[in-house]
């Protein structure tokens, strides 16, 4: 714990939802920040007596809580929002990929990523796991904005054409560059078992193990994907990844909509995390993942939005609410996936999936100061009987009043402080007009 005599910031007077192991909530609480970290979390009177802050924020009428973790997205797909709606995944990919080849230049990816960061920061998301092209440029864009980004090299045989030797070298180079960065969390990423060769997967496995970082890929998103993998390899995507040795506690699988009982048990046994993207899965007609069964088996489950070309927004409050409601509906049981569990999936569950649980995901002294304030005085949040229930079932992205990442306030009083949002929107609109004219 840091020294308490002097702190950079005191946020005091709100309901503090810690998401700590004891699930403590301080109805009249406070948090203190020093050198980008939390140094005091507790009852208001106790914290105020212990610190001498340079700045004080009156948090009365708000919730102070960990920032949300979007554990799977493709940030720069903001450029293609709404361009491929109401079609299944395979034709969706066939429409999106040519657009990406033409328009996902380094410059445009930076533009689209910054627009995504702006949207997420406004909505209380403080960390996102991004899988997209021009990862160096998007990482630097995140640093400019002050956004925490989990990203890395992406392997997709049909589009990059790299040799396995150069791919492995590039994967390690990215990790080496960002392994000590305060905002960028490097990872090893492969699009999916059906879009890369076994050789590519083995290279990714080697790079991930040698670097000690998280490996992530899409898996078992659609029935067609599972059927094609069985036809080609005699195994499902999950079984195939296990045979290669890619299921472990530093593996994160996106979607996992179509799983058998033995696959769920296998994921639990290996300690592999799953990220649930309910809106995208519904919109593409992929199905509804067995999230309740995964949680019962002991699998760590996070929540993600996926890219906005298949969602069409980056609103983690909607995803959290939908994740809880879907499981209640398909099980005919309102007690399934209660609010507290859904909130954990969107905070600490996401942090654990990204191997960041020691840094973010809960308000504990020593962790990074990634936190948000949520307004309780809006019509949709009045009155408050159960704050956790409100956060999951009533809160909107527009209720976020302040977003802090790594001890820096990036959004406050409806204004983004580190990014020129209007200029970015203007440039994206100009690019969209060009796409419509040429395509």
Structural class: alpha/beta
Main sheet, how many strands, which sense, barrel? 9 strands, mixed
Estimate the helix proportion, in percent: 40-55%
CATH superfamily of the largest domain: Metal-dependent hydrolases
Strand content: 15-25%
Mean pLDDT over the full residue set: 95
Query: How many domains make up the 3D coordinates?
Result: 2
- Strand tally: 17
Indicate the CATH architecture of the largest domain. Alpha-Beta Barrel
Radius of gyration: 21 Å
Question: What secondary-structure arrangement, pairings included, does this model have?
Answer:
Elements: E1 7-17, E2 25-34, E3 37-43, H1 44-50, E4 53-58, E5 62-66, E6 68-73, H2 89-103, H3 106-122, E7 125-130, H4 135-145, E8 148-155, H5 157-160, H6 164-178, E9 184-192, H7 198-211, E10 215-219, H8 223-233, H9 237-244, E11 251-255, H10 261-270, E12 273-276, H11 278-283, H12 291-297, E13 301-303, H13 316-331, H14 339-346, H15 348-353, E14 371-375, H16 387-393, E15 400-405, E16 408-412, E17 415-416, H17 421-438
Parallel strand pairs: 1-4, 1-5, 6-7, 7-8, 8-9, 9-10, 10-11, 11-12, 12-13
Antiparallel strand pairs: 1-2, 2-3, 5-14, 14-15, 15-16, 16-17
Molecular structure report:
It is a single chain. By secondary structure, this protein is of the alpha/beta class. It folds into two domains: 7-66 and 369-416, Urease, subunit C, domain 1; 68-353, Alpha-Beta Barrel (TIM Barrel), CATH 3.20.20.140. Helices cover 41% and strands 23% of the residues. It is built from 17 helices and 17 strands. α10 links the parallel β11 and β12. The chain is globular, with a radius of gyration of 21 Å.
């Amino acid at each position: 714990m840091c020294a308490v005599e002097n702190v950079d910031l005191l946020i005091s007077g709100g309901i503090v939802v810690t998401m700590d192991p004891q699930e403590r909530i301080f109805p009249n609480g406070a948090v203190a920040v020093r050198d980008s970290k939390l140094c005091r979390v507790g009852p208001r009177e106790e914290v105020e007596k212990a610190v001498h802050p340079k700045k004080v924020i009156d948090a009365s009428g708000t919730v102070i809580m960990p920032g949300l973790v979007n554990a799977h997205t493709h940030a720069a797909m903001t450029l293609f929002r709404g361009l491929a709606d109401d079609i299944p995944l395979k034709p969706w990919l066939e429409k999106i990929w040519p657009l990406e080849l033409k328009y996902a230049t380094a410059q445009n990816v930076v533009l689209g990523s910054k627009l995504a960061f702006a949207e997420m920061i406004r909505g209380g998301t403080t960390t996102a796991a991004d899988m997209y092209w021009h990862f160096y440029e998007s990482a630097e864009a995140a640093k400019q904005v002050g956004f925490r980004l989990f990203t890395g090299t992406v392997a997709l045989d049909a589009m990059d054409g790299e040799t396995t030797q150069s791919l492995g070298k590039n994967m390690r180079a990215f990790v080496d560059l960002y392994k000590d960065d305060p905002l960028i969390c490097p990872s090893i990423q492969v699009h999916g078992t059906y879009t890369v060769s076994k050789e590519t997967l083995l290279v990714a496995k080697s790079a991930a193990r040698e670097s000690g970082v998280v490996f992530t890929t899409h898996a078992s998103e659609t029935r067609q994907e599972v059927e094609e993998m069985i036809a080609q390899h005699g195994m499902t995507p999950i079984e195939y990844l296990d045979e290669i040795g890619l299921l472990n506690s530093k593996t994160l699988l996106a979607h996992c909509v179509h799983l058998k009982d033995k696959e769920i048990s296998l994921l639990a046994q290996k300690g592999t995390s799953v990220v649930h993207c309910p809106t995208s899965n519904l919109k593409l007609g992929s199905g509804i993942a067995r999230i309740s069964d995964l949680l019962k088996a002991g699998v760590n489950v996070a929540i993600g939005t996926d890219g906005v070309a298949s969602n069409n927004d980056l609103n983690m409050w909607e995803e959290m609410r939908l994740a809880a409601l879907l499981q209640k509906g398909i099980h005919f049981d309102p007690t399934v996936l209660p609010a507290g569990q859904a909130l954990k999936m969107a905070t600490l569950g996401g942090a654990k999936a990204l191997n960041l649980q020691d840094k973010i995901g809960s308000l504990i002294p020593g962790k990074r100061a990634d936190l948000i304030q949520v307004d309780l005085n809006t019509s949709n949040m009045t009155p408050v009987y159960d704050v956790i229930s409100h956060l999951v079932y009533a809160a909107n992205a527009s209720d976020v009043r302040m977003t802090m990442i790594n001890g820096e306030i990036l959004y406050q009083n409806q204004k983004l402080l580190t990014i020129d949002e209007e200029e970015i929107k203007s440039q994206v609109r100009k690019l969209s007009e060009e796409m419509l004219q040429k395509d």
